[in-house]
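Supplementary Methods, section 5.1.

A reviewer requested that the exact input to the structure prediction be made available. We therefore reproduce it here, unchanged from the version used in the analyses.
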Amino acid sequence: MAAPCVADDVYLDIFEHFHREFEEFTRLRNQGRRNANERKILFLHKSTKGFGSGDFKIPSASLKEALTSPPPRSSLEPSTTNSEDLDSLCEELVKSSQSWTLEVSTTLVSETAIYLKLHRGKTFKKVLGRVIKDGSQYGRVSSRSHRSYLINNCCFLNLGKNSKIDRLTLASLRALFLCEHTGCLLAANGFDVIHAPNIPPGELKAKVAAFEISLSGEKSCEQRDIDRVQTDGTEKVKNSKYMYCESRTDLDGKQGSQFSCPTSDSSNDSTIVVADSDSTTDMSYKDGAFLHIRQFLIDAGKSIGKNGYDQNIQNVQVLGVDGNATKVLQNSARLHCYVTDAGTKLSQPVHVLHIVNYERAFVQQQVDIVRQTLFGEETENCQNSHLVYGPVLARKTGAASPLMDALEFLQLRKTQMREAWVMKYGKAVSGEGWENTITAMTLAAIKFELLSTTARNPVKVDLSQTGTSVGKTDCRIGSFVIYNYARLSTLFAHYKEASKQGVYPDLPDVADVDFTLLREEEEWQLLLHYILPYPSLVKETIAGPGGQHEPSSSPHAKIQTHRICNFLVNLSQDFSSYYGRVHVLTEARAHLLPTIFARLYLLKCVQQVMKNALRLLNITPLEQV
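The structure derived from this sequence is encoded token-by-token as follows.
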């Protein structure tokens, strides 16, 4: 991933600031001590199971590496950490944290770790105040990156001879959702995003529209421009040093030049005929013309094998026996047209993200490398990465479940959704309002169903018409998130109406609220596990742990497209548990109002985080059900 050109103080969120402050504390504490340069930074981990011991912990292994007193002179010398060292560390840490983003109130030393407890009242006020201030921008990078992304959806590319794509399959629908979600993730991290217009017009485009998918920046290149680039590419092939063909002579009977080209069997190099780079004579192609793209990768210093391009990449046919461009060259020319068009519009380097089915991943790598081989000098700063996704399979049920197309799947899930609401509300489920609600719930449910699994893994869906317990669960995961958002909207609508009637006063400013009154462990969990780390989560989806967007020579995209869905499901489950147990809008008595205000602000921030995360899925949540 390319690194956004933003200042640290702008890019870091509260959670990251706290970690950086802790690391700086460790570094300063070790200054001037013997072997200070060899001491390691203390690792700080967020507690995941309960908060009885603390909110963060420093593991014992990290303590032994960084806090031995004195540090061992050799590996044979024992490493000891005495109680005075630990007491001193804890005392210094608590004192130093008073000026940090988050303040540590107490520490607890055990045999395995040091546990840190944050000052809950101050942490609530700091974090919730930030969410209220940022609103819809919470979790989004405000500064723009110096690099843009072109998302190339490969599921509709015509890679076969005389093949026609007119059916919207579930795998294609998954690809569209991945393109849409990935574009939203990149935009949230400060990148400009353009989608390659690869959806064929006509009936297929109308089918895609039924799922309300938004691919921002999609704009088709003129066909004449694509044809021009393809013609140019054909000429570049004939003059490329990586071109060879198996014909023995050109049209004038002139013998071609020869060189040794390594094949998949490195022990048996094959001699092939290559066109003279200085020759302008038309070639006669007995078996077509090929590019030795593996040699290009080697010459360009590109990695091959693990963390690189496919180990089996060797040669690819780019011209047929008639001298016309093959599908690979056609798609390379089309892609190059999109890349140059995107670079012109955005006036900055373009990173091409190919989103491709596992069955076509190898061919798309060939398309990518052919474009680099022939047109690389024109877009030398262009990077490429490939996000490979798995198939959508029918979950095994009692009866055979043939794989249906996307529209049939939509109708099945919509029927199941309607049945679920009829069971809950009976005959009240009728009319245009309910129909719109069921449609919105169904589209959200399908999106969660196809995106909650790691992209490379297959998605298994229950296609039985009757709907097994598994199928019903699949259908309800996304709708459960939307339903809980609507519960929050209903809560605030009730409070607003009661305020108008004089039952409750208006909400005070967040700075005037006493958050020390939030004493339930579930309230702290909502903050520490969801609201506080949300901005870091958004960064990690495209950069991995730590949120560092470092440029990489690997063509494998490490975008975690499943994490936002899973985050929302877990948040909804924990919120639902809390909301079902705790009565928020209690009697409007003077001594109860401060607690009501604190809880309303907490839930207001929970709702804002849910709304921002749903925005990354291009889902508009319902305000009521």
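Residues 406-615 form a domain with the Isoleucyl-tRNA Synthetase; Domain 1 fold (CATH 1.10.730.10). These observations are discussed further in the main text.
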